[in-house]
Amino acid sequence: MNLFGLALRSLINRRFAVVLTVLTIALSIGLLVLVEQMRSEVRDGFYRSVSGTDLIVGARTAPIQLLLYSVFGIGDATNNVSWQTYQELAGTSDVAWAIPMALGDMHRGYRVMGTSDALFEYFRYGDRRALEFAEGQAFDDLFDVVVGHQVARQLGYDIADRIVLSHGTGSTALQQHEDHPFTISGILAPTGTPVDQTLYISLPAHRAIHIGWERGTRMPGAEIDPDQARERAGELHPESVTAVLLGLQTRAAVFGLQRRINDYRAEALTAIMPGITLQELWRITGLAEQILRVVAGMVVLAGLLGMLTVLLTTLNERRREMAILRANGARPWQIAGLLVFEAGLIAACGIIAGVALALLAQALAAPWLLTTFGLHVVASWPAGALWLVLAGILGAGLAIGLVPALMAYRRTLADGMQVRM
Fold first, then answer.
1. What is the pTM of this model?
2. pLDDT in tens, 59-95
3. How far apart are CA 176 and CA 106, in angstroms?
4. Fewer Cβ close by (within 10 Å): the C or N end of the chain?
């Protein structure tokens, strides 16, 4: 019988301990692969969320906070940009297009954004892909609403369904805009970005539903009738917007315009470049990622030490087996090679099972990440660098097998035939 057959039969004979050892290694490998894969996928998901936007402008705040609430819907703005400032920004000669974003309302847990048709024309995600409609179209009537793919799928909405928006961005809305119901005019195709989690209304509609509201409270008798709002649609615009996405005529103008906006005297503003701010975000989260890597590495080390413990524990029980093999002509180096091969098989099975567990965990976590953060992640094979790490772990498993192998190599045939009490 060849070495593989002997090793396989030996492992099957000790299957309970071997299965537990493989499971231990698989869990540690799964954690390592999952940490690395999710880190990579989440980063890609953030990068895919905005593409082609040169600057994001908001009220004076931390750059990362501005990026998070304007693009990813995480957190809230502390202040707004006045409508006059938005118009001045949009009219700057360096600016090719401007997408206004007016936040402050929700619908059953999903963010509502007041914007203009520029969103559907200029916004890009992923590899500079434009937004597409799966059904319907953009705003036609004043009280039309366009919903993201995930909103329509989760809430079961279709074209022409009527919905009511809630005032405020909290998880529990206490006041509704029930006097201004909206009709769904379009459903966006899936993007795998926070766009899927958002409802879009026009800026005049955003203004119309907030007439008669002061400091988050409706003032009875001050609101405007929907028909009156339609008649005045041309003159309705919000008093302020939350943020503005800017696309420039030339990329060379980015730094100059960013400096001018940050030094804007009429209003305290912050202009950020999305890519650079994302790098800052990764630098902040980098320490946590390194800690997770170290923890995962320690867990893998613990799994390999557990395998060594099992091999050493069973080595004494296998004295008679080794002696029989020696009596049948096996040489000491062949016995040692058998033990190293068994250690390699256990490590290889643990690695394969660990990668499978990581893929399963990614597939299970993907819907939660998409629903909670609007991040689209998919179960994918480890990258090339991670395969090198796994190969190193397999090598470490073989090296650990040398310990019991050397002990078996030094034992004599008579040692195995003696009866020990």
1. 0.73
2. 998 999 999 888 888 888 888 999 999 999 999 999 9
3. 9
4. C
Reading the block at residue 333, the tokens are 């180096």
Residue 187: left if φ>0, alpha if ψ -120 to 50, beta else—which one? Answer: beta
Residues of the chain with pLDDT under 70: 1-3, 169-174, 213-222, 370-376, 412-421
User: Which ranges of 103-165 would DSSP assign to H, the alpha helix?
Assistant: 118-122, 149-155
Amino acid identity, position 244 = V
Alpha carbons 59 and 62: distance in angstroms, whole number:
9
Instruction: Tell me the sheet residues that pair with 214.
Output: 217
Residues 6 or more apart in contact with residue 18 via CB below 8 angstroms: 11, 310, 346
266 CB burial (10 A radius; 0-12, 13-18, 19+) = exposed
Q: Where are the alpha helices (DSSP H) in 109-244?
A: 118-122, 149-155, 203-208, 226-231
Please write the tens of the pLDDT for every residue from 279-296. 888 888 778 888 888 888
